[in-house]
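Troubleshooting: if your tokenizer reports a length mismatch, compare against these two reference records.
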Amino acid sequence: MNYLEPRTDVPAIDDWSTRLILRDTRLPAEQRIHSLIAVLTFVVCFFLPMTPGNVAALVVLAFLLLMTVVGPLIGMAGTRAKRSGLLDGPWRRLPAAVAENDDEPWDVLLADGLVLKGSFHDLPDMVLDRGEVFVCGPDAEGRAMIRAAGFTAMRPAEVGTGEYRAKERLDRPLGRPRDDPAVRQVINATWVFKTTWVMFVVTLVVAGVLVALSVSPLAPTGLVTAALVALPLLDFPMLLASMRRQRRAERAVEHAECWTPVPIRLFPEKAGHHVAGIAELPGGPALVRFPAPVLDVVANIAATSVMWIAGRHENLIAVGVPHVNALTYAVVRPDGAAQDGDPMPWFRRLRSRKPLGLP
């Protein structure tokens, strides 16, 4: 198996897949405008009579602004490592094993004489399979960053002490996609779809209550807040279509008997273009578009020029990476002769996302 791996011959900060992880976490321009309006409205609330609509606006805006602040904190570990200079050196490929430590609340890796402790989530399974880990550091304070093949995530680690016994390596046959525990984990995460519906209902109710409380007596701040709360509802039809496609892809995985690797050449990323490429499918070359690209999947495709098909239903294919808990869908387009890219319709370009940073 060829997986995405960080380069070990350049400083980590110059490795494209590391930059992919550290990509700009600032809010898009549209969200920054929304946040500015929310801040101004929040301040104005204190200068108006405390009517029910104004009080409700104050509470809702405080919650919205809190969520805006919390979002950028998700990638704080990588940003902190970059600022401290921990990523100024290259990634080192080290032989590694996973320690048996069921009585401890953290993960432990044994990497070429180092005992690395931390919360590594899904990385230890890949380390156990391949017997290696990629490490930056440790620095003078014993802090390090680790990565595993196939994943775009990097995790902070601390150098620890102690004697541990290494777990035995387990062979993971390719098998059927639905029998892959990592893929099974994605398929079983039905809470994601339920949460989306709950958020839609909650948003609708909150916006409706704000309007009802702000009409009489009139509370302009409540009406402005209701508009800010309701704005995400405009994206719900597109989100609903994406959810339906994802469910179709997961049903395709359930009926697939094997993984199918196919060569693919991704187009260079351009603003206003889909993530897409020309794939050598069993029926011949075709344009393959990723409407909702998952970072782990497209990064592995960019690094290996191989797309792993986990199932197919009509013109929709489920795409994943064996033993990596990431699954997305791609749409096979009939115009497979395209060579320069797959531009979005004009109305999609108005709100297109920034390029991911693929090579």
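Reference record two:
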Amino acid sequence: MKTSKDKSKNLATPGKPMSQDEFVSLIKEAEEGEFMTLKEFKERFDKWRAERKKS
């Protein structure tokens, strides 16, 4: 899943609290993402790592 580059809000800025609604919205957005099992992740990661070594 790719993240949107057009988000203008920097969530890492200290001292700028977000509202409860904004927080819940971010959680719901993340839950709609792509999920995979640990085995699937390891296979994809190992494949990615092998491709990087070839370059």
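Descriptive notes for reference record two:
- The chain has two helices and no strands.
- The mean pLDDT is 84.
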